[in-house]
């Protein structure tokens, strides 16, 4: 598993974005600056800033910002729209590398989604990140009152339900850093995913919550983030430390094991029964459990309850939470109504971890950064090669490649050992990688701070729009994206770009047209199982495109191609629409179809990246 940064050797300020630690002499300065640019864009509304605003936010010279942005644009990590810089879906490959190496979303997301459907409530999975928690999966209900948290969002531990469960394993040094952060940032301004704290809470309160969570094995959030929001959490444990390391996917997370759980049970009830402690709640808390604080006090709370480390209990690899609001459930109601079902789901998750086969890494990557040399020759001074190479180092990790040596990273990227080493030193300072005693490196949850939260909510129309605009600019005709309606009888336009002609197809977003009479509709219908019954649709499926010439409207000609998701399913279609007088159908296919296919390829490439661990809405 990628390293959990709670006890990582490299720390840069306990959830402080850029950290106060001195920059190592061998760190790559342009790489640190590029990371700062990506973090400021991530924190900005909509993942976008003007070049001037980016200059102010980073404190860098405008010429430096321009070069960094040009390099990131070359990598397709950002895109320029006039003077505005937008995060681009391709950037999600960095967060995907961490999530793939972690394996937890792939193994547990299905259980979380099923629980959300069963309870009709939002369910999340989170990992510890220093003295905070970071989401790795969200199953959110679509309601008028719904959660705004995204995969990759970082929250302070003390304002969440998962936080006390992670804090139950903190070392004295972790608690010290938490106190320092609380003193330096009493309003939680460093956590952009949250509203600022309005009223300070005593440190001792969270310490008591952590001590109690160590005994109870679950924790509540009773409107700590904001009024009305409640949550309940249960830790998900690996079946045992030896198993975790032996599978090659769950490396040491740094969390103390054995916070009172019977091995493999996911429930502290058995431990309480063994201790004769009964249920710990209200005034009936086990003697001393409320009075203890800090890391040593958590241990004393366990001892006071008669709950010690259970042989074979595994490390906390993540925490599962059910999140609701007080109009649906009060905090006590969460415990009585939802905790049993949450515990059952967590027990199933732990069974899945126990039976999961080792990760299959496939052929090792090679030469990931070789392309940077050609880009440097082409762009010259405007391309910061050390930034591109440094970020590419993060993509060397993945499923079955959670922990890599310096030699393996150099081989995967095509960099010299010296260049790879300097990049790793820089990433360690930035909190993105952590070294292990066996001289390997692993990604940390902080990699998700590089653009993942805002991009995790990207929709297919948002992915397609810049590519449609570019397509319309190249062929000087209108371009559009459409999906099939629920009934399958109509298409709905979800994005479009005008061609700039006096006479052009002008169909607004949201318009519905008969599917059978449009090129877009025929491409979408051709992917259905019953398409072979229609000679027209069978031909569309064989040729991979549809051409409709003046069938929907006199003078209107259109050609369309499909857009497929990661699984190969046709989820949308893109088209070019034009007046029939602007060339023959053969000229249309010769001039327009290759451009249209190229655009579909670009959309599909970004959809594959964005959809690997996130749901991409098609409308």
Could you list some keywords that capture this structure?
619 residues, alpha+beta, six-stranded antiparallel beta sheet, 22 helices
Largest sheet: 6 strands, antiparallel
Could you report the average pLDDT, rounded to the nearest whole number? Answer: 86
Shape: globular
Q: Structural class, from helix and strand content? A: alpha+beta
Number of H- or I-type helical stretches: 22
- What low-confidence regions span 5 or more consecutive residues with pLDDT below 50? 4-19, 241-293
Query: Biggest sheet, strands in spatial order?
Result: 6-5-4-9-8-7
Helix fraction? 40-55%
Radius of gyration: 26 Å
Strand content: 15-25%
How far is the first residue's CA from the last residue's CA? 35 Å
Report the strand count: 18
Structure notes:
The chain is α+β, with helices and mostly antiparallel strands and 619 residues long. 40% of the residues lie in helices and 17% in strands. The strands form 4 sheets. The chain has a 6-stranded antiparallel beta sheet with strand order 6-5-4-9-8-7. Strands 15-14-13-18-17-16 form a 6-stranded antiparallel beta sheet, sandwiched between helices. The longest helix is centred in the middle third of the chain and has 25 residues, at 331-355. It is globular.
